[in-house]
User: Which sequence fits this backbone?
């Protein structure tokens, strides 16, 4: 498993190189998008999160960083993979409007 930080950083560097090579290859350039989708699934699907071998504090972030850095290294703007990845992560990090409305009710009662 990649539970040790040193191993996660070593894997991050290698994964970035692999993602960059895939983006530069005519037949493999969609693989990093697939990998990004898989990482998103790993952090959003409940059954996947509990059985994951990556530590959310290190492994997932470094996986996303590897994909983003490879996209920036290879492509000229617009970097669709980077934009899509960042939008998806921000969407996941933003509370739903229902949650905000419910939270606001609890704050402003009284």
Assistant:
């Amino acid at each position: 498993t990649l539970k040790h930080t040193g191993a996660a950083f070593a894997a991050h560097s290698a994964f970035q190189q692999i993602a960059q090579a895939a983006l530069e290859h005519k037949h493999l350039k969609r693989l990093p998008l697939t990998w990004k989708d898989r990482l998103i699934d790993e952090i959003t699907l409940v059954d996947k999160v509990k059985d994951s071998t990556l530590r959310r504090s290190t492994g997932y972030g470094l996986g996303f960083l590897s994909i983003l850095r490879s996209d920036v290294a290879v492509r000229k703007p617009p970097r669709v993979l980077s934009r899509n990845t960042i939008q998806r992560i921000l969407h996941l990090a933003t509370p739903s409007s229902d949650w905000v409305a419910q939270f606001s009710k609890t704050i402003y009662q009284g």
About this structure: The chain has six helices and no strands. The mean pLDDT is 85.
